């Protein structure tokens, strides 16, 4: 169960969540840079292994790694516009980095007192590694200009400690220059990772907004049609009713004629409203298939539709109910999956019209629709009115199948 649960959780993540998990751990791995050098110092020459700098290097490496991990986490959350206290962790991370560099350099061997190789191979590279490792979170949590200033300040703060080791100014300048180049590369990479994740979330939000706008546009269309149909008629009814009231108060016989016209207009309005609702509620099979292809392709879902050659010969009620199945199934594909492919096929077998829809990109967790969703329940009711049925047969992992059959 300990292994199955993480795998199940991973399959249940959406694509933006998966990409964030991958990019976040890519950043976390960059925080482990000081550990290998710290461990290398403690497994080097026995004489040097007992030096105080070796133990300090190991402690600084572990402490720097832990704080850098937290700084990466809070900085990425800040970049993604989530509430966080990243500045406090960035300041702590930078302070530990500079203090750790000074401790390692001051306690380490001196050029002349020990071999130059020990100082150059271990102590100075460890200090520079700690610096550029701490610079990674700053490149994510701070604007580029401020991050560059923070990195330059860190290099200048450690430069005197490098000179105190007895290394030549040329050696120190070379290490500072190399560290600055590594900082530039590392900062650009970390910033790119954060930018890429923000783009993924923005695209996901745009997709949801597109779906909401489509629904709002359809509601506006229906309200516009209803207003156009009913606006004039209701105004006429109101005016004629007022006229009839005035005529009735005066005892004029024309009041009955006006009310008869009101009745006629009301009956016409009732018929027109039914026509509007019928046009809104009736689904044409070919129109729904074309609309499904357009909507799915706009969401980057490859759509394959095969209605066969006898679709036009199907009875009108059968075409209408199957059009509703296509409409609702397309909505489910967009709302409940991360599909990249969708196939819609219509065939006739055993005196029944069978519509099959299959798509991929289904999470491993159970679908809400399989638990009795409103959309599928409504389709079952529509199909039942025509002696049809809706089934959800077993599909391949990560896929979803829907079969709707109606007797001809």
UniProtKB/TrEMBL annotation:
This is Histidine kinase. Residues 218-285 form the Signal transduction histidine kinase subgroup 3 dimerisation and phosphoacceptor domain. The chain crosses the membrane at residues 21-41, 53-69, 90-108, 120-140, 147-167. It comes from Kitasatospora putterlickiae. InterPro entries: HATPase_C_sf, HATPase_dom, Sensor_HK_TwoCompSys, Sig_transdc_His_kin_sub3_dim/P. Residues 322-397 form the Histidine kinase/HSP90-like ATPase domain. Signal peptide: none annotated. The lineage of its organism: Bacteria, Bacillati, Actinomycetota, Actinomycetes, Kitasatosporales. One of its GO terms (molecular function) is kinase activity.
